[in-house]
Amino acid sequence: MTEEIVVVPGDGIGREVVPAAREVLEAVGPDFEFTEAEAGDAVKEETGEALPDETRELAANADATLFGAAGDTAADVIIPLRRAVESFANVRPARAYPGVDAPNPETDLVFVRENTEGVYAGHESEIAPGVTTLTRVVTEDASEEIARYAFEYAENRGGDVTIAHKANVMRTTDGLFLDTAESVADEFDVAYDDALMDALAMHLVQRPDEYDVVLCPNLAGDVLSDLAAGLVGGLGLLPSANVGDERALFEPVHGTAPDIAGEGVANPSAAMLSAAMLLEYLGHDDAGERVRTAVTETLASGPTTPDLGGDATTRDVTDAVLSKL
Ligand code: NAI
Ligand code: MG
What value does the mean pLDDT of the chain take? Predict the structure, then answer.
């Protein structure tokens, strides 16, 4: 059965790394039908809309979407796109790869970030000149859904769960998140503990190898997973998945990298690893594993792009990965 994949390169290096990831998907061969769509700053300049209805509709109906990055319009694109695929979980693996300089080569973390509420779903207002507020939304339903996803994920990979929170201060909202996650934990035979997110940030820097799946509220997951990017060699290596029940959206964690965009030297690894997650989401586990292995071997043997200390282009790295497939 043909699966429909929507490809949204977006702006900046999205237009360089997403085509590279598409080549990799084509090389491993499931029966995919690709549709290209626009989103981001460039299409907004042309049409006034950062996320054209057509792109949203395509993502809402496809089996999976591969997105690059958007520039200034990132929030106007990515939040509605995540909503279009009804994703509740943002999954961000961060692992150290052989051959890539990382303070702790044993780092192999997966952040499971709540993707629908917290402060990013809150309503901001200016209640008086110079006085602003933000409402934070945490529900039992969303907390339960994300906790169950994290514990299932840990169970499948034979790992454990750390629940990140700040329930000592945000007693009501993070209190609900923590209590709900602990009730879900009771249903699983998976080891877990909880950690205050500020102390956890320090511990992740000092001994990342002691953690496995980190279950996070929305904002904490955003920040801690970028911190983890710094532990494993930079944003050029971090893939992510926005997972829903019926469809999902895959994207590198990085943005448009305006400092290198257009030079053809962006690291395509994060986009390719996102493509590997897409394959696995659709049940093509072998193809996903082949892509991950080819990217891992290329990181170890080179060529590598300048962010990893090499002098290769995106094309060189893509060719090396394709030759390993
Ligand atoms: P960024 O991720 O674009 O860049 C941060 C640094 O990492 C830069 O030095 C960049 O060159 C480097 N970098 C990132 N990805 C790389 C790759 N694949 N290969 C080599 N080097 C790479 O984050 P920044 O600078 O904070 O944001 C730039 C723009 O991207 C902004 O307009 C922001 O709004 C947007 N953005 C969009 C996101 C999205 O669409 N999901 C996510 C993050 C930022
Ligand atoms: Mg972020």
Answer: 95
The pLDDT assigned to 205 comes to: 95
Report how far ligand 1's centroid is from the alpha carbon of 260 (Å): 10
Question: Pick the catalytic residue: 72, 101, 193, 198?
Answer: 198
Q: Considering only CA atoms, which residue is closest to atom 36 of ligand 1?
A: 255
* ipTM exceeding the 0.90 mark: yes
3-state secondary structure string across the chain: CCEEEEEEEECCCHHHHHHHHHHHHHHHCCCEEEEECCCCHHHHHHHCCCCCHHHHHHHHHCCEEEEEECCCCHHHHHHHHHHHCCEEEEEEEEECCCCCCCCCCCCEEEEEEECCCEHHHCCEEEEECCEEEECCECCHHHHHHHHHHHHHHHHHHCCCEEEEECCCCCCCHHHHHHHHHHHHHCCCCCCEEEEEHHHHHHHHHHCHHHCCEEEECHHHHHHHHHHHHHHCCCHHHCEEEEEECCCEEEEECCCCCCCCCCCCCCCCHHHHHHHHHHHHHCCCHHHHHHHHHHHHHHHHHCCCCHHHCCCCCHHHHHHHHHHHC
Atom 25 (ligand 1): residue with closest C-alpha?
257
The model's pTM: 0.93
Best mutation site among 256, 263, 267 for ligand 1 pocket (most ligand atoms within 8 Å of CB): 256
Q: Quote the pLDDT of residue 322.
A: 98
Task: Exactly one of 108, 226, 319, 324 is catalytic; name it.
Answer: 226
Active-site annotation holds for 166:
yes
Q: What is the pLDDT of residues 258-311, one digit of tens each?
A: 999 999 999 999 999 999 999 999 999 999 999 999 999 999 999 999 999 999
pLDDT (tens digit per residue) in 195-221: 999 999 999 999 999 999 999 999 999
Query: Is residue 198 annotated as part of the catalytic site, yes or no?
Result: yes
Residues around the ion ligand 2 (C-beta < 5 A) = 222
Query: Is residue 120 annotated as a catalytic residue, yes or no?
Result: yes
Residue nearest to atom 31 of ligand 1 (CA): 71
